[in-house]
Each structure stands twice: as C-alpha cells, then as structure tokens.
Amino acid sequence: MGRYVVRRLLQMVPVFVGATLLIFLMVNVMGDPIAGLCGERQCDAATAAQLRSEFGLDQPLWQQYATYMGNVFTGDFGTAFNGQPVTELMAAAFPVTVRLTIVAILFELVVGISLGVLTGLSRGRPVDTGVLLLTLVVISVPTFVTGLVLQLLLGVEWGWIKPSVSPQAPFDELIVPGLVLASVSLAYVTRLTRTSIAENRRSDYVRTAVAKGLPRRRVVVRHLLRTSLIPVVTFIGTDIGALMGGAIVTERIFNIHGVGFQLYQGILRQNTQTVVGFVTVLVLVFLVANLLVDLLYAVLDPRIRYA
Amino acid sequence: MRGFTHTRWLTGAAAVVLMATGCGGGASGAADGGMLTSSWGDPQNPLEPANTNEVQGGKVLDMVFRGLKRYDPRTGEAQNMLARSIDTTDSRHYTVRLRDGWTFSNGEKVTARSFTDAWNYGASLRNKQKNAYFFGYIEGYDQVHPEMGGQHADTLSGLKVVDDHTFTVTLNQKFSGFPDTLGYAAFAPLPRAFFTDHAGWLKTPVGNGPYAIESYTKGSQMTLRKWNGYPGGDKALNDGVILKVYTDSNTAYTDLMAGNLDLADDIPAAQLKNVRTDLGDRYINTPAGIIQTLAFPYYDQRWNRPGMEKVRTGLSMAINRDQITKTIFQRTRTPATDWTSPVLGADGGFKAGLCGRACTYDPAAAKRLVRQGGGIPGGSLRLTYNADTGSHRDWIDAVCNSINHALGDDNACVGNPVGTFADFRNQMAQHKMSGPFRAGWQMDYPLIQNFLQPLYFTGASSNDGQWTNSEFDELVDRANAETDPAKSVATFQQAEEVVRDNMAAIPLWYQNGNAGYSQRLTGVALNPFSVPVYNEIKVS
Fold it and tell me: In this protein, which residues make up the domain named Solute-binding protein family (chain B) (predicted)?
C-alpha cells in the first residue's frame, strides 16, 4: 500500500508539469495581454514595454515558464494586473468555492445515494420510474436554466433567499447555488447507485448474507451498499475537481466571488498569472482527489488489494 | 482572512444541517439608514488617478477626488472646483490659482504641490501609469516619458510651483482647451501618503472628495462614507455608498428587483424590454458621451486606394440605424448624425445632421456608391469585434444583415468575432484587421477635441485604423491654437467635415447611460460619463 502511494505521488509530477505547461501555452497563444489594459486605446509603446517587463512578458516563453514554476515552488504565484498578488486572490476565492463544493458534494452524497438505494431496491415500481424521469429532466436541463429559474422563483417571486450571495458567502446562502451546481451530478449519482445496487442485489454474497438471516438493514448498508459504492465514489472523486473548476456558470448567476469568477476574469483579461495559478491548484485538487478515490477502493471492497 | 474563514466553516457546517429545510433568511433591506448600495465592476487597474482608464474605477475616483475643474453633472460644462482661476494670454503659459481651505480627508492641506507632485508621478514612465499621455501637452513630457529608452528627467519642466496656492503650467504647443481637460480624474491632487506609503494608500485610497473610503475588499465590495469635513459645495446628500461587485449585470438587475440592491447602473440588454414595466420612472435612459463607429484598416492598401471613400459612404448608407437602435437596443442608442455626441451641446460642437445623407439609410444609393467605388475589397466584408463583453454580437449581426439586404448580396458582410478584448486590441495594434472593425469611443472630457483628435489625427493614440489626412491635421492644429472658444469649436467642425467627406469611420449611434433604482432613492441622475451622480442621491 505504501509503495503504491509513493508511486502514485511520483506519477503526479509529470502530470502536474504537463498540465501547467499546457495552460501556460494556451493563455500565451492568445497574444499580448498588455494590449487590453489601456481600454479602447493602444497603450503608448513606452508604458507597454515597462508593463511587459514588470510581468516578465518580454522574455522568451520557456524562460517565463521556468521562472514561473520556480516561483511557484517558493509559494509566489505572481501578481494580477490590478496589482494584487495571486495568492491573495486565491485566499479570497478558494474558501468560497470549497464551501460551495462541500454543499454540492453533500447534496450528491445524501440525496443522490439515498435516492439511488431507494430506486435500486424497488426497481420497476412507481417510485423508481418517477425518480428516473426526474433525473432525466435534471440531466437534460442546462445548469444556467435551473439556476436562473430557481433564482427568479426563490429570490424575486417568493423572497425566500437573496438572489445574490454576499461577499462572505456563508454556508446558508450557498444552499441553493450548491444544489444548482450539484444538480446534474446528483442525477448521475442516483442513476449510478441505482444500477449498481440492482446488479449486486443478485450477487452471491448478498444471497449468503440474507441466508445467514442478517437483518435487512445490515445487508443493505454493510454488504450491498459498500461494494455498490465503488463506481459512485469514483464518480464523486473526479467530480470534486470538476465542481470546483466548473462552477463558473453557477458562480456567475449567484454572483459568488469564487474560483470560477477569478478564472473568468483572468481569461477575459488574459492574465496569465491568475489563470495558470488557479489552474495549477485545480490540477492538484484533481490529482489528490483521484488518489484518495483509489485508496478508498481498498477500504470499500476488501477483495481489492494493492501491492 | 484565513482564520476567519475556518471558524466560519464550522458554524457554517452546523448551518447546513439547520438550514436543510430550505429557508435562506428573508430578503432584508439593502443597506442601513442613509447608506445606499450600488452595482460595481471589479476595476481592472490599481485605483490610482493616472492609472484608471475605465468607468468602474473612474466611478470611485469621482466620489473620492475633486480636481481643479469639475464637469457639471447635467451640462458637462467644465467649472472651476479647486481652481480659483486658470489664466493665460497665449494658450501656452497658464497660471493656476487654488482656492483656500481645501484639505484631504486625512486633514492634509491641498496645495499647489499636491497637484504638481501628482502630475509628475502620473507622467513619469517609471510609474507605468496608463493615463500618462494626458500629461503629454505639458512641456518636458518627452523627457520624463520618452518613447524609447529610459527617462532623462524626474519631473515635468513645464510645471513650476510659485507658492502654496499658485503654480504655472507651460505647454509644448498651443492648446486653448487645456483648462477644460483638467476635470479629468488623471489630474486629481494626491496627498503625501500616496508617495510615502504607496501600498497602504492603494489599500484604502485617500482623496479630497465628498466621500471617504471606509473599507475596500478587492474584487468584492467598497464602502464609502460621507466625509463630513468636505469643504466643497457639492456635499453628499446621503450617508454613504456601498459598491458591490457584480460579475453579471443580470444578477445586479435581479437583486434590484428583489430589493437587495438600490442602484444598478448597467441594465443588461436582455432586460431592456421589461425594464419600463418593471421600474416605471425609476428607470433612467440619458445620453452619455459615447459613440460607436466602424473604423477601417487604412494600412491595408485595398481600403486606402482612391475611390474607396465611395464604398465607405455606401456602406454607411446601407446601415439602417433607426431600426437597429429600436429593435436591438430598445432606444438606448440614438442613430448618429455626426462624429461627436449630443452631450457636448450645440455650443460645445455637437452638430446634428452634419453627416447628412451619408448617414441616412438608402439601400439604392448604397448599392450604387459601392459599385462606383469598385466594390467591397475581396468581395466580402468581415466586421471584427470582441465577443466577450457587451452585446456586440447582436448589433454586428444586425449591421451585417442590413448591409446584405441593401446590397442584395447575402455574402456581402459577416461578423468576425474575436474571443477576448485583449486579443481584439492585439490584432488592432498589430494591424491585422482585414476589414472594418468595431470602434467605441467614450469621451475623457466633454470637448469636441476629444472626439476628433485622439481618433483621426495622424498617429494619434486611438487612431487604430491609421487614417491620415493633412487637411484634417491642419484644421485640428488651428482649432487648438484658437483662443476664442466659439471659433475653436467652429474650426473643429470644419475638421469633422473632412472626416465626413472621406468617411474616415462610419458613425453608428450615440450610446445612452442606463440605470434603475429602488423606491428608497430620489434624485438619481447619470452624468455625461454615464456614471451616477452619487452625492446628489437622497435615501429615504
């Protein structure tokens, strides 16, 4: 197990370097970011040159990347165009998005898995068909539609929530945005759990457990659910990264100043430092989440053993 | 910040359980007492007067600073503010005398040095200020801000402090409009703290205006309180303003509808249809000093050969401005009939109808002129624009439809979107435009000079199409040297006629400022820069 973890950690290094290099190249291909800084007019050449050297944009790309990576390892993610250190932007944005992600994941875990177990155990009954139809609707409606409709109904028409989230973004204000963010994944979690449960229900070990006379509750939770959760955990694990990076739409609708907002601003302003910095952290989140998922397999299913 | 968030998570986790029933707390009032909340966008640059060149940062500077002059919020006329007098005999040497009794909100006196230090800082190449070129008229600018290489001097030789309340300005050319430019934020005075503790000053800028900044969370919110010691006549009539950053103007509008926001000064295009029924007379739609045009790449020989002015004029006549401003913009734009803006007023140089027939929709004449001029280069027009902000795509498509319809050719015109504004500016700077491109102009100060010189003068800062015409240049130089304002304006209008006869750029429409506000507010108005006049707003 220990060797497996070390090997996985080592594998992360090339993935990390490759991913950041790709992002670095992509943002740079878009051209000179200084051009957009002076509004509807051209920056005068002298000022532009000064700005370019301030942000290191006058150096060859490979050197920019090397400098950047060197700085990253000392914890310096550079400066955004508005003069703020990127780490400051991260300190403001990540806690907000992490909270939003936690809310979304909680929805997926609690609501998604419960519904999945419920429908998986009662296949073909009205409850099953109803939930299946509902998830189909949720999957097919784009997030921004769900978000805007909920915002309009709950925020403006009924006045239950504030349509926008305050800068502090406490958990209670993030419930509706979290639900919107989770909605599509939630539907997938439900369907995955349902299929998995329905399949494993007929397996030998479940039959054995039932034959031993174990209480139904114990059979479902300890035997059936545990193995059935493997595909679900894989999905949720990768979803953590996807939720954090993909919250742009949800964050825009509810005016949440999180990672999505910073990334969006960074891309609009072609701010290499911001975009690469945030993506770097997101890549790390992905990698760690994937590692955790793989480790969880062993916990969930004792049949899976690692060298 | 970090410690604070950790405790929040814990309490928040409990809250999730408690709030799982779905109640998110009632929509309470937007702000306390006499404070109002207003929508805001994240400023692109650090908030320094000479470094702020967009509306969102300008909004704050307008509340926190007062300069030598101030533009009347209604007429746009430049009036003395801190200046007692700005005298000249030759339009080149100016003597500025300051009023007594002005201080910054930290108690420091505003003196002649507050201005000269600020201007020297703004002009200096070392400080990388994006508005540095505003000081380009002052003698010695080429020393502190040379086009190439390092700077040779630290201060502008044209600025001299005479005493605490007097300084002189020498320009490197005659410019009779110079005093009227001094209301622009770049010319604001700066306190000593700006220079001694720059980082600290940037965290909470200190100025001399009717408001003082109480707190500033970058990217989220700024709280401005009325400054009770403000000596000017335009004191704030409310207790303060909370500027909230919105990433999407739609959310700001939704918040306004839900009573969560008092003032939204950017009504999203999608809501323009409903805004009158939603807000009634709490919706403002007033002219602003903004004009949209289509510019041409004159560096491309195909667009610069003789006879092309006929094609350009023909294209102008192929655009149904009236219909587009009505259907796409819901009358928040006015079809343009000259190259300036109505906010200048007739005395300031706005001349309705100067464009004449060339700006009137006439498909038959359009088709004829384009044919006479030798047709569209390459057979098809590609209108380049940035698709990231605004609703540029909508109107570009409409303009193309109009041109295609008028010319009877479905392939005459297509839109050519560019992903980001930076890339759009990039292609422009590298002279890569293959056809006409979007060119918006928001005035810096309400002078006819500002609508013509930066855009059409040879080599000027915003002459992105590289149009050049010696007759125009000569007229502009003459107008700038003219000491009589009326004669100066008349000469500028002559120059504008040269722009028209060559159709240097196609004027499309004048843009209005849009805003909506809650029932708590009265006295809301937008100034000619489409920024709310915050100090005149009353909160009930």
Answer: 79-462
